[in-house]
Design goal:
single chain, alpha/beta, Rossmann fold, seven-stranded mixed beta sheet, 20% strand, binds guanosine-5'-diphosphate, binds magnesium ion
Protein backbone atom coordinates (compact mmCIF):
# COMPACT_ATOMS: atom_id res chain seq x y z
CA UNK A 1 0.00 0.00 0.00
CA UNK A 2 2.92 2.31 0.72
CA UNK A 3 4.78 1.57 -2.45
CA UNK A 4 3.98 3.53 -5.56
CA UNK A 5 6.40 2.68 -8.40
CA UNK A 6 5.89 6.09 -9.99
CA UNK A 7 6.88 7.89 -6.84
CA UNK A 8 9.54 5.67 -5.34
CA UNK A 9 11.80 8.64 -4.62
CA UNK A 10 9.30 9.72 -2.00
CA UNK A 11 9.84 7.97 1.29
CA UNK A 12 6.33 8.02 2.71
CA UNK A 13 3.03 7.75 0.93
CA UNK A 14 1.18 11.06 1.06
CA UNK A 15 -2.42 10.50 1.94
CA UNK A 16 -4.92 12.82 0.37
CA UNK A 17 -6.71 14.23 3.40
CA UNK A 18 -8.97 16.34 1.20
CA UNK A 19 -11.05 13.27 0.28
CA UNK A 20 -11.80 12.49 3.93
CA UNK A 21 -15.47 11.73 4.48
CA UNK A 22 -17.76 11.13 7.42
CA UNK A 23 -18.41 7.46 8.23
CA UNK A 24 -20.39 7.26 11.43
CA UNK A 25 -20.96 8.62 14.93
CA UNK A 26 -20.75 6.55 18.06
CA UNK A 27 -22.32 7.48 21.40
CA UNK A 28 -19.43 5.88 23.31
CA UNK A 29 -16.39 3.69 22.82
CA UNK A 30 -18.43 0.50 23.12
CA UNK A 31 -20.24 1.35 19.92
CA UNK A 32 -17.25 2.05 17.70
CA UNK A 33 -16.78 0.14 14.43
CA UNK A 34 -14.48 -2.89 14.32
CA UNK A 35 -11.05 -2.39 15.87
CA UNK A 36 -9.13 -2.81 12.60
CA UNK A 37 -7.17 -0.63 10.21
CA UNK A 38 -5.45 2.46 11.62
CA UNK A 39 -7.01 5.24 13.63
CA UNK A 40 -5.66 8.60 14.76
CA UNK A 41 -7.75 10.47 17.31
CA UNK A 42 -8.13 14.20 17.88
CA UNK A 43 -8.73 15.31 21.45
CA UNK A 44 -8.82 18.56 23.33
CA UNK A 45 -10.80 20.81 25.61
CA UNK A 46 -14.02 22.20 24.24
CA UNK A 47 -13.36 25.27 22.12
CA UNK A 48 -9.67 24.39 21.63
CA UNK A 49 -10.16 24.51 17.87
CA UNK A 50 -10.45 20.79 17.14
CA UNK A 51 -13.24 20.93 14.59
CA UNK A 52 -11.56 23.87 12.85
CA UNK A 53 -8.29 21.93 12.67
CA UNK A 54 -10.03 18.90 11.14
CA UNK A 55 -11.71 21.14 8.59
CA UNK A 56 -8.41 22.83 7.78
CA UNK A 57 -6.61 19.51 7.44
CA UNK A 58 -9.24 18.15 5.08
CA UNK A 59 -9.84 21.47 3.32
CA UNK A 60 -13.55 21.13 3.94
CA UNK A 61 -15.69 23.89 5.37
CA UNK A 62 -17.86 21.79 7.64
CA UNK A 63 -16.61 18.22 7.81
CA UNK A 64 -16.42 18.52 11.58
CA UNK A 65 -18.95 21.08 12.66
CA UNK A 66 -17.34 24.12 14.25
CA UNK A 67 -19.32 25.79 16.93
CA UNK A 68 -19.11 28.85 19.06
CA UNK A 69 -21.08 26.97 21.70
CA UNK A 70 -18.50 24.80 23.44
CA UNK A 71 -19.33 21.21 24.35
CA UNK A 72 -22.03 20.70 21.73
CA UNK A 73 -20.45 17.69 20.05
CA UNK A 74 -20.86 14.83 22.48
CA UNK A 75 -20.57 12.03 19.95
CA UNK A 76 -17.44 10.33 18.73
CA UNK A 77 -17.33 11.15 15.03
CA UNK A 78 -15.40 8.90 12.67
CA UNK A 79 -14.05 10.00 9.33
CA UNK A 80 -12.33 7.91 6.70
CA UNK A 81 -9.37 9.19 4.66
CA UNK A 82 -9.34 6.02 2.64
CA UNK A 83 -10.39 2.47 3.41
CA UNK A 84 -9.19 1.44 6.88
CA UNK A 85 -7.54 4.81 7.55
CA UNK A 86 -9.61 6.83 10.01
CA UNK A 87 -9.60 10.14 11.83
CA UNK A 88 -11.56 10.19 15.07
CA UNK A 89 -13.06 13.36 16.50
CA UNK A 90 -13.41 12.78 20.24
CA UNK A 91 -15.84 14.90 22.27
CA UNK A 92 -14.22 17.94 23.83
CA UNK A 93 -13.42 17.67 27.51
CA UNK A 94 -13.40 20.19 30.29
CA UNK A 95 -16.71 21.78 29.38
CA UNK A 96 -17.73 23.70 32.49
CA UNK A 97 -21.48 23.24 32.16
CA UNK A 98 -21.41 19.46 31.85
CA UNK A 99 -22.52 17.79 35.13
CA UNK A 100 -19.71 16.25 37.20
CA UNK A 101 -21.14 12.75 36.82
CA UNK A 102 -21.05 12.98 33.01
CA UNK A 103 -17.55 14.41 33.10
CA UNK A 104 -16.28 11.52 35.18
CA UNK A 105 -17.96 8.98 32.90
CA UNK A 106 -16.50 10.58 29.84
CA UNK A 107 -13.00 10.76 31.31
CA UNK A 108 -13.18 7.09 32.16
CA UNK A 109 -14.32 6.27 28.63
CA UNK A 110 -11.50 8.35 27.17
CA UNK A 111 -8.94 6.51 29.25
CA UNK A 112 -10.39 3.17 28.18
CA UNK A 113 -10.36 4.15 24.54
CA UNK A 114 -6.68 5.13 24.71
CA UNK A 115 -5.80 1.92 26.52
CA UNK A 116 -7.90 -0.63 24.68
CA UNK A 117 -8.26 0.50 21.09
CA UNK A 118 -5.63 -1.53 19.22
CA UNK A 119 -5.97 0.29 15.91
CA UNK A 120 -5.25 3.63 17.60
CA UNK A 121 -1.74 4.59 16.47
CA UNK A 122 -1.51 8.24 17.39
CA UNK A 123 -3.20 11.02 19.28
CA UNK A 124 -3.43 14.68 18.35
CA UNK A 125 -4.09 16.86 21.39
CA UNK A 126 -5.21 20.38 20.63
CA UNK A 127 -4.65 23.15 23.14
CA UNK A 128 -5.35 26.86 22.81
CA UNK A 129 -1.86 28.39 22.66
CA UNK A 130 -2.93 30.92 25.27
CA UNK A 131 -4.12 28.26 27.75
CA UNK A 132 -2.11 25.06 27.26
CA UNK A 133 -1.57 22.08 29.56
CA UNK A 134 -4.71 22.24 31.68
CA UNK A 135 -5.27 19.33 34.09
CA UNK A 136 -7.12 17.15 31.59
CA UNK A 137 -4.57 17.86 28.86
CA UNK A 138 -1.89 16.60 31.21
CA UNK A 139 -4.02 13.59 32.10
CA UNK A 140 -4.31 12.76 28.38
CA UNK A 141 -0.54 13.05 27.97
CA UNK A 142 0.01 10.78 30.94
CA UNK A 143 -2.41 8.11 29.67
CA UNK A 144 -0.88 8.22 26.20
CA UNK A 145 2.65 7.84 27.46
CA UNK A 146 1.50 5.01 29.75
CA UNK A 147 0.26 2.98 26.79
CA UNK A 148 3.12 3.97 24.46
CA UNK A 149 0.91 6.06 22.20
CA UNK A 150 2.74 8.83 20.30
CA UNK A 151 1.27 12.32 20.62
CA UNK A 152 1.25 15.45 18.51
CA UNK A 153 0.35 18.52 20.55
CA UNK A 154 -1.01 21.34 18.41
CA UNK A 155 -1.01 24.78 20.00
CA UNK A 156 -4.03 26.20 18.23
CA UNK A 157 -5.13 29.75 17.41
CA UNK A 158 -1.44 30.65 17.07
CA UNK A 159 -2.57 33.72 15.09
CA UNK A 160 -3.81 35.20 18.38
CA UNK A 161 -0.23 35.81 19.53
CA UNK A 162 2.54 37.93 18.04
CA UNK A 163 5.53 36.01 16.73
CA UNK A 164 7.71 36.49 19.81
CA UNK A 165 5.04 35.39 22.26
CA UNK A 166 4.15 32.48 19.99
CA UNK A 167 7.72 31.18 19.97
CA UNK A 168 8.11 31.67 23.70
CA UNK A 169 4.91 29.72 24.32
CA UNK A 170 6.01 26.94 21.96
CA UNK A 171 9.34 26.60 23.76
CA UNK A 172 7.63 26.67 27.14
CA UNK A 173 5.28 23.81 26.20
CA UNK A 174 8.10 21.80 24.58
CA UNK A 175 10.02 22.01 27.87
CA UNK A 176 6.95 21.27 29.95
CA UNK A 177 6.23 17.97 28.16
CA UNK A 178 9.76 16.60 28.60
CA UNK A 179 9.08 15.17 32.10
CA UNK A 180 6.32 13.00 30.62
CA UNK A 181 9.12 11.03 28.94
CA UNK A 182 7.00 10.11 25.94
CA UNK A 183 6.95 10.43 22.17
CA UNK A 184 5.44 13.92 22.22
CA UNK A 185 5.92 16.48 19.46
CA UNK A 186 4.69 20.03 19.96
CA UNK A 187 3.88 22.44 17.11
CA UNK A 188 1.94 25.66 16.64
CA UNK A 189 -1.18 25.66 14.50
CA UNK A 190 -3.64 28.16 13.09
CA UNK A 191 -6.77 27.27 11.18
CA UNK A 192 -7.23 30.93 10.39
CA UNK A 193 -3.78 31.37 8.82
CA UNK A 194 -3.40 27.73 7.74
CA UNK A 195 -0.09 27.32 9.55
CA UNK A 196 1.13 24.05 11.03
CA UNK A 197 -0.98 22.02 8.60
CA UNK A 198 2.12 20.57 6.91
CA UNK A 199 3.47 19.38 10.29
CA UNK A 200 0.12 17.75 11.05
CA UNK A 201 -0.02 16.01 7.65
CA UNK A 202 3.56 14.74 8.01
CA UNK A 203 2.79 13.26 11.40
CA UNK A 204 -0.43 11.62 10.22
CA UNK A 205 1.39 10.16 7.21
CA UNK A 206 3.98 8.66 9.55
CA UNK A 207 1.35 7.12 11.81
CA UNK A 208 -0.79 5.85 8.94
CA UNK A 209 2.24 4.22 7.36
CA UNK A 210 3.00 2.16 10.43
CA UNK A 211 2.22 -1.51 9.96
CA UNK A 212 -1.24 -2.25 11.45
CA UNK A 213 0.34 -4.90 13.66
CA UNK A 214 3.98 -4.75 14.63
CA UNK A 215 6.00 -7.73 13.52
CA UNK A 216 5.18 -10.16 16.35
CA UNK A 217 3.84 -12.70 13.84
CA UNK A 218 6.68 -12.14 11.41
CA UNK A 219 9.97 -11.88 13.27
CA UNK A 220 12.76 -10.69 10.95
N1 LIG B 1 -8.36 33.11 15.64
C1 LIG B 1 -8.59 31.81 15.51
N2 LIG B 1 -9.76 31.29 15.96
C2 LIG B 1 -9.96 29.95 15.85
C3 LIG B 1 -8.97 29.10 15.28
N3 LIG B 1 -9.45 27.83 15.32
C4 LIG B 1 -10.67 27.89 15.89
N4 LIG B 1 -10.99 29.16 16.20
C5 LIG B 1 -12.26 29.62 16.83
O1 LIG B 1 -12.41 29.02 18.10
C6 LIG B 1 -13.75 28.62 18.35
C7 LIG B 1 -13.83 27.13 18.64
O2 LIG B 1 -13.41 26.40 17.50
P1 LIG B 1 -13.89 24.90 17.22
O3 LIG B 1 -13.10 24.42 16.07
O4 LIG B 1 -15.38 24.81 17.14
O5 LIG B 1 -13.38 24.22 18.58
P2 LIG B 1 -13.68 22.75 19.18
O6 LIG B 1 -14.73 22.94 20.24
O7 LIG B 1 -12.39 22.33 19.79
O8 LIG B 1 -14.11 21.85 18.07
C8 LIG B 1 -14.54 29.04 17.09
O9 LIG B 1 -15.13 30.28 17.33
C9 LIG B 1 -13.46 29.14 16.02
O10 LIG B 1 -13.79 30.05 15.02
C10 LIG B 1 -7.74 29.69 14.80
O11 LIG B 1 -6.83 29.04 14.28
N5 LIG B 1 -7.62 31.04 14.95
MG1 LIG C 1 -15.81 20.67 17.86
Amino acid sequence: MNYDPNRDHIVTYQYNYHVTHFVTSAPDIRHLPADSGIEVAFAGRSNAGKSSALNTLTNQKSLARTSKTPGRTQLINLFEVTEGIRLVDLPGYGYAEVPEEMKRKWQKALGEYLQKRNCLKGLVILMDIRHPLKDLDQQMLEWSVDVGLPVLVLLTKADKLAQGARKAQLNMVREAVLPFMGDIQVETFSSLKKTGVDKLRQKLDTWFNMPPEMSEDHPE
